[in-house]
Structure prediction request, 244 residues.
Amino acid sequence: MRQKRAKTYRKLMSLYAMTFGFRQPYQVLVDSEILKTGVEHKIELVRQLGTVLQGEVKPKQQPSVDLAKTFERRKCNHREPIPGDDCLMSVVGLTNKHRYVIATQSQPLRVKLRNIPAVPIVHINRSVMILEPPSDLTLETKASIEAKALQPTASEMSLTSSRSAEAPKKKIKGPKGPNPLSVKKKKIDSQKTFNPQETILAEKRKRDDSDESQHERTEVDDDASTSRPTKKRRRRKKGNGTLG
Prediction:
């Protein structure tokens, strides 16, 4: 089997498994026509069914031929013999409750089975076993099941109604304060309380600082005067020139 076809069949069987509850080993109802076709084309029916359905299969004969004697027999509870197509339709029912996969070569039966949701149909076409795509009714049923799964259940609805009945109390919010970044800083009052002791101490400090600075200046001047040697000026002698 080609990889693309195997991938498609895997997706189809996953659809049946996830939505309609199919599980392995798949129960396959096989009619006499597909058994005859398998014998004519020398097809290993059980192995091909496992390949097409991408899983383990459990074939059941309905009705049987020589090859079908190796399969498990499905009892249909019909006391009188009826045509194979009618027997298969009665076993599948209106909803395919037992999750059967139908392997048949009967074209009228396949048309009838397409009107029942969730029925995988397998047939042989030129020695190739084919799994038919899901019918429109199957896809519609799948969409309705998914939509129903998204809706809340009765218990969830009761919980939501009780919560909505108890309205939450709103918190009373007071006036908001100003933004601290936009508020100007408070100015320091220039007028301070008068303290006579502080003023006396401040004046005394000023006097001490002025005395120290004046004392330092005098010391610097003395050092400068002592370090520099005094240079004597030489006087130029005036010559007594005679006029000739």
Summary: The chain has eight helices and six strands. The chain has a mean pLDDT of 78. Helices lie at 3-20, 32-40, 45-53, 84-92, 107-113, 136-150, 154-165, 196-227. The CA atoms of residues 184 and 212 lie 43 Å apart.
